[in-house]
């Protein structure tokens, strides 16, 4: 046992009237909503990288956090794991997520990295025997080290492609061994800074081939988890190939992989792409591409992915409404890809940031569930398109020709009168639930 979380109690549900800051006010894991426990709907996950590897730096300054596991080799990596699982237990978190670099020391060679990862995975396995926390997903960090400065799968150097493929295999093996339910491909450097030195066709083909190998390995191993791509529009590359849901889906369709891969969607990335989170979720749902979500928020006065914990109930309600409409998070979950502000130094800050976020998500989800059960919003949407269900209009849509439709407009003297979209009424309706 470490002393990092000394005197911090396990977080329990105490209800909205509780004045105990170390208690859930709205997240009751055993509350039944839409016929299922709240914990089983939301499937909260803790991000290993932001919670335990982030040092409090920003583009203008370095480390502000002092953690006893920073720096050093495998012993500190194991101390970090001890602290992580203590936090999981304090929050009774169902899941966690990690990149390989978050959990192991960086070695001098790939072989050393593999040995380090295998050792810490064995250590995780031992911790998980006495913990209720499972692995939601694993992934490979193919963006931090300078070798990846020109990408991983899309790199012009075949040796980097090979190194990346080997690293992905190691991380997939780790994910499978720990019982992970998803594997995420996060293309942090899969993009370009200038077209002057970039071959777009070649890089797209390389990215597709890497993804195809990932899918093939999944099937070879008989693993029934989900392969997920996380769309990300910019940061750090000037232009990244996995810009948003529509871009990723077009890529998957181009290479015939749309039935093998789904998406892990993040609120902050949706905002950077110029979308709302609910837009990206709705589009993914309509394409049967929704796999899992990263719940965070951006500072709307900043043009950067600030990875803050969610604190806006209406935003989370609209997001979870789209999740519910899409059938819910099955093998996916709600991962808090969020980090403390660099002035939030205390261990209690790390716990309370998650407590608040889990309460916000619970409030948003319950509001979304009420909106879904009530059905008024969907009824209004159906009424707006109701005329399309008439047989004559279905025939026009399916079998019509320009000539025939023109004759119909002329003979029936069709002269459309605009109809209200009733946006403000629907916004008022949503506000009654949140």
What report would you give on this structure?
With about 425 residues, the protein is of the alpha/beta class. The protein folds into two domains: about 10-375, Divalent-metal-dependent TIM barrel enzymes (TIM Barrel, Alpha-Beta Barrel), CATH 3.20.20; about 390-430, no CATH class. It contains 16 helices and 14 strands. It has helices at about 40, 50-55, 75-90, 100-105, 110-130, 160-175, 200-220, 245-255, 265-270, 275-285, 315-325, 345-375, 375-385, 390-400, 400-410, 425-430, and strands at about 10-15, 25, 30-35, 35, 45, 95-100, 135-140, 180-185, 190, 225-230, 240, 260-265, 290-295, 335. The strands form four sheets. An eight-stranded parallel β-barrel has the order 5-6-7-8-10-12-13-14, surrounded by five helices. β13, α11 (about 315-325) and β14 form a beta-alpha-beta unit. α3 packs parallel to α5. The chain is globular. The chain starts with 11 loop residues before the first strand and ends with a helix. The mean pLDDT is about 95. Its cofactor is Mg(2+). It is found in: Cytoplasm. It catalyses: alpha-D-xylose = alpha-D-xylulofuranose.
Secondary-structure topology with pairs:
Blueprint lengths: L11 E2 L9 E2 L7 E2 L2 E2 H5 L1 E4 H6 L20 H18 L3 E5 H4 L6 H19 L5 E6 L18 H20 L4 E4 L5 E2 L7 H21 L5 E4 L9 E2 L4 H10 L6 E6 H6 L4 H10 L3 E5 L18 H13 L8 E3 L10 H28 L1 H9 L6 H9 L2 H10 L11 H9 L3
Parallel strand pairs: 1-2, 5-6, 5-14, 6-7, 7-8, 8-10, 10-12, 12-13, 13-14
Antiparallel strand pairs: 3-4, 9-11
Helix pairs in contact: 3-5, 5-6, 6-7, 10-11, 11-12
Main location: cytoplasm
Subunit structure: Homotetramer.
Cofactor: Mg(2+)
């Amino acid at each position: 046992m470490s002393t990092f979380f000394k005197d911090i109690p396990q977080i329990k549900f105490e209800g909205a009237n509780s004045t105990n800051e170390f208690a859930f006010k709205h997240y009751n894991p055993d509350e039944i909503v839409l016929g299922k426990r709240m914990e089983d709907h939301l499937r909260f996950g803790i991000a290993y990288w932001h919670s335990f590897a982030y040092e409090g730096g920003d583009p203008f300054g370095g480390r502000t956090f002092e953690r006893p596991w920073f720096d050093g080799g495998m012993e500190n990596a194991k101390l970090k794991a001890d602290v992580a699982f203590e936090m999981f237990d304090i929050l009774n978190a169902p899941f966690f997520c990690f990149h390989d670099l978050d959990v192991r020391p960086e070695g001098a060679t790939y072989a050393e990295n593999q040995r380090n990862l295998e050792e810490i995975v064995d250590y995780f396995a031992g911790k998980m025997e006495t913990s209720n926390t499972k692995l939601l997903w694993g992934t490979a960090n193919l963006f931090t080290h300078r070798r990846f400065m020109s990408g991983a799968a899309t790199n012009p150097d075949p040796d980097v492609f090979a190194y990346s493929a080997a690293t992905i295999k190691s991380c997939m093996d780790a994910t499978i061994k720990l019982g992970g339910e998803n594997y995420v491909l996060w293309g942090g450097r899969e993009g370009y800074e200038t077209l002057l030195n970039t071959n777009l066709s070649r890089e797209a083909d390389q990215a597709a081939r890497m993804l195809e190998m990932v899918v093939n390995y999944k099937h070879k191993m008989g693993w029934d988890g989900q392969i997920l791509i996380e769309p990300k529009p910019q940061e750090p590359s000037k232009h990244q190939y996995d810009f948003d849901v529509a871009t990723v889906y077009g890529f998957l369709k181009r290479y015939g992989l749309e039935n093998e891969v789904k998406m892990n969607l993040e609120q902050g990335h949706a905002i950077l792409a110029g979308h709302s989170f609910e837009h990206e979720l709705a589009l993914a749902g309509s394409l049967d591409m929704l796999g899992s979500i990263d719940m965070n928020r951006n500072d709307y006065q900043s043009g950067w992915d600030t990875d803050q914990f969610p604190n806006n109930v209406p935003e989370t309600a609209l997001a979870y409404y789209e999740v519910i409409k899409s059938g819910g998070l099955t093998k996916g979950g709600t991962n808090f890809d969020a980090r403390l502000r660099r002035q939030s130094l205390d261990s209690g800050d790390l716990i309370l940031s998650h407590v608040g976020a889990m309460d916000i998500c619970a409030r948003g989800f319950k509001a979304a569930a009420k909106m879904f059960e009530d059905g008024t919003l969907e009824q209004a949407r159906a009424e707006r398109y109701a005329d399309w269900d008439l047989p004559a209009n279905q025939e026009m849509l399916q079998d019509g020709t320009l000539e025939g439709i023109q004759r119909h407009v002329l003979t029936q003297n069709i002269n459309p009168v605009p109809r209200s979209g009733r946006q403000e009424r629907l916004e008022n309706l949503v506000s009654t639930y949140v």
